[in-house]
Design goal:
About 1% of the residues have low confidence. Helix 4 packs parallel to helix 16, helix 9 crosses helix 18 and helix 10 packs parallel to helix 12. With 497 residues, the chain is an all-alpha fold. The relative contact order is 0.18. It is built from 20 helices and two strands.
């Protein structure tokens, strides 16, 4: 075994492999930082190049692009309130307030460190836990998926701000929009145009909801400082700040690993899940959404923790965990490698090389992040009056480049207006986004579970996993009711006093 590992290390530590991983990570970071340019697009565009590369080099290139784009999305989320991908939507909640308070560099450094730790722990988990987690993932069916999604939706209470009612209204609106298009049985809902039959894409809804309202606010209210740049402030991340977020980083990394190993969940759900748990357990929970470094740490460690974990079902079972690993499955087949149990039997050296290469890529991600943070942090020094039209152009171009469809651009602009109205009415956008992202998985697994049981609701309580999530739902809903009752009593006492 050790001889095989040594040989794999020597094979990976070549100039060609290091250059491929370095180029992949740098390109991924830049692509991820551009609104609308997703990691899926980066990996898909790079797929033709794998025809001319050795098997392991080609896979490492695609993995590097995946990792780089996942981290890169946080850069635009923090600096211009425009998450590059859906997985960075959580980062906006605390990253943008920190940037406005002159702590953009601090937020970027926390994002980088959290991403690298999450990625590293994810790679370790891939090496040691591939087989057990893959077996666990096989035991997770539609009832368990549904209970997991139901539990994830309980975090709406945690991120509703001052009004739980407005948060619930926002979440219900998100669930409603998630039903637009064709359902799993071929029926069309709210399909008023031909384009709406395929549903609303996440990217235009996401970017329209977060980026455009800020631009409209600058135009409508014409604030006195709208022509000024944000202050970068102190970019250094102190040891005390890192220690304060370390618990959330580790917990978020393992949340990303567990959810990433389950096919179909993805980094977006993991990020929101981790953020909600961090807010529930943090002594600074009231500061979440206002500029809390721990919030960035929780979301970024989770979405990067998914990167290695999504490879677990792919390598162990031959089942892609998300769209990107689906593209990677194609790359494996092109190179004559068949993912699944036989891969470890017939191509063990290549598997070892892949594992070691992924560990290498975590180190390269930190170096590329430090290099790009210094460059991208200067965006904060651009006056908002000049930055705003550039952001609008990037948003429109990025969305149009995904599918070359003007309907998505229309959705972007409409959601921008909707987001601005929500801003005026103090309706929090985060619950909407959580519900919109998790809504399709929530509905599909509900209907699949009921179809399996022929309408018997007891199917949701027939496994230990379902009972665990049911208990957690009851527990956190009870805590929410208790907290809201206490707030009501305090308000009534203050009014009577």
């Amino acid at each position: 075994m050790w001889n095989d590992l040594l040989f794999a290390f020597e094979s990976v530590a070549t100039l060609a492999n290091v250059l491929a991983m370095g180029a992949g990570i740098l390109a991924g970071v830049v692509i991820g930082a551009i609104p609308g340019m997703t990691g899926t697009m980066a990996v898909t565009l790079a797929l033709p190049f794998t025809f001319y590369l050795p098997p392991v080099t080609s896979i490492l290139l695609l993995v590097a692009l995946y990792k780089g784009s996942t981290y890169g999305a946080s850069i635009s989320a923090i600096l211009i309130k425009t998450p590059g991908t859906a997985s960075a939507a959580c980062t906006v909640l605390d990253g943008w307030p920190l940037a406005q308070n002159g702590k953009a560099g601090k937020a970027l450094n926390m994002s980088l460190i959290s991403s690298c730790i999450g990625d590293f722990l994810s790679n370790i988990s891939l090496i040691f836990l591939a087989a057990p987690l893959a077996l666990l993932a096989l035991r997770v069916g539609p009832p368990e998926y549904f209970m997991l999604m139901a539990f994830a939706l309980t975090m709406v209470a945690s991120i509703s701000g001052g009004s739980l009612l407005l948060g619930v209204v926002s979440a219900c609106f998100g669930l409603l929009l998630a039903t637009v298009g064709e359902d799993m049985y071929g029926s069309f809902r709210f399909a008023m145009t031909e384009d709406m039959k395929s549903g609303l894409s996440v990217a235009p809804v996401l970017i329209g909801l977060f980026a455009l309202p800020e631009l409209l606010r600058l135009i409508v209210f014409r604030e006195e400082n709208h022509g000024q740049a944000m202050k970068l402030g102190d970019n250094r991340l102190t040891l005390a700040e890192f220690r304060g977020s370390l618990k959330s980083i580790v917990r978020g990394s393992f949340i990303g690993v567990i959810l990433g190993a389950i096919p179909g969940i993805g980094p977006s759900a993991a990020a929101f899940f981790s953020y909600g748990e961090a807010r529930r357990s943090s002594p600074n929970s009231e500061n979440f959404g206002k500029g809390e470094l721990e919030g960035i740490a929780a979301s970024e460690s989770a979405n990067n923790g998914c990167c290695g974990a999504t490879m677990i079902p792919l390598l162990a079972l031959g089942v892609p965990g998300d769209v990107i690993t689906g593209v990677m499955l194609g790359a494996f087949m092109i190179q004559g490698l068949t993912p699944g149990p036989l891969l470890f039997q017939n191509n063990l050296n290549e598997v070892y090389m892949l594992f070691i290469g992924m560990m290498f890529s975590s180190v390269l991600l930190f170096g590329a992040g430090k290099l790009t943070v210094r460059f991208f942090s200067h965006i904060a020094s651009i006056p908002q009056v000049l930055l705003s039209p550039v952001v609008l152009m990037l948003c429109v171009y990025g969305i149009y480049s995904i599918s070359s469809n003007m309907f998505d651009v229309t959705v972007l602009l409409v959601m921008g207006v909707v987001g601005f109205i929500m801003l005026l009415l103090n309706i929090p956008p985060a619950p909407f986004l959580i519900a919109f992202i998790l809504g399709p998985m929530f509905e599909d697994n509900l209907r699949r579970a009921l179809a399996i049981s022929r309408g018997d609701p007891s199917v949701f309580f027939q496994s230990a996993i379902s009972w665990i999530f049911a208990g957690l739902i009851v527990f956190f809903v009870g805590l929410t009711i208790r907290r809201e009752w206490q707030k009501y009593r305090e308000k009534r006492a203050a009014k009577n006093a």
